[in-house]
Amino acid sequence: MVGTAKFNVQRNDQGWVAQLSGDWTAVGLGQAGVKLHDALRGAGSVSLDLSALGQCDTAGVLAIVRAADGKVDETAFAASPGLERLATLVTHSLRPVATPPRRPHSIEELLDRLGRGLVNAGVDAFHTMAFVGHLLVVISRVLRDPRRIRWAPFFSVMERSGLDAIPIVMITTFFIGAVVGFLGADELARFGAQVFAVELIGVAVTREFNVVITAVLLAGRSASSFAAEIGAMKMNQEIDAMQTMGVDPYEALVLPRFMALVTIMPLLVFVATVAGLIGGLLIAWWVLGISPAFFVQRMVDDVGATHFWIALSKVPVMAAFIAGIGCRQGMEVGGDVESLGRRVTTAVVHAIFSIILIDALFALLYMKLNT
After folding, report:
1. How many domains does the chain have?
2. Does 273 map to a domain?
3. Structure confidence by residue, pLDDT tens digits, 286-301
4. Which of 115, 209, 216, 341 has its CA 20 to 30 A from that of 183?
């Protein structure tokens, strides 16, 4: 049975004496520590009488030391070796720890960070080239013997990364087409050329927004998914187990994801093109009064399918970069969750940056080709 913590404070010729009784533990302490602090307020040196003390733990010692407000030290508990050790532990933990003054950043630290950044960039580029080389070796091996292709994960990734992404791709590009239609109707109305909004919507959707928006969505969905899946296997040492059993993780994990994304992305771009054109058509019909038949006729006569084929030519490159970046970051995951989160974030950022860069390079190429 736990006894309630009690105390009695008296003054004698030597000073103040605090006689403690009961159990000064976390369970039996109650408000005794606060009341002892109030009783010792204004007192000078305090000695402790522990002859009637029952049980005592760190909570009780902490309450006694705080109540005495520095007027006792751990030597007051010398009557009990166990309590003396507890008092030493508690008093040492209450002492403030001096923190070294923070030095201002110097030019040496700046150069050190710059040098480390350059070295890390070089190491990252080397690992990227090693990943690409290994992937090319696996692709050539599969081309020589197509029976090595793992069709089950290939179709599974196609479904998860492609078919499951159709709704979000359709909704996003539909509203993108609608926004382009609104902007075209508003700006071209100033010049009395509202009818050319059809060409604006057609070129913007079929040449740029269909492939860029689809690629960005896949970068957020698929690149992060690939990095997380492979990274989790890397953390659990499943990839090491595969290598021990003689299974190439690039052939079993990376290649199916790479092939699936390259195969399914053209379908997503086609769906995005149709959804974007429908969004632009509805806005042109509602705001400008352009009938759907007239819209479609001007699309066929003035826009044509050339811009769509130009957009489709970017798809394999973007899909390859998205899948490669996601898988490569997953293979670089270490043994902790922090590394997994950092690599997943890096996969998404690098994939989106690659999409914008690839689109800009293709734009320059087709500008030089006058197409």
Report:
1. 2
2. yes
3. 887 888 888 888 888 8
4. 216
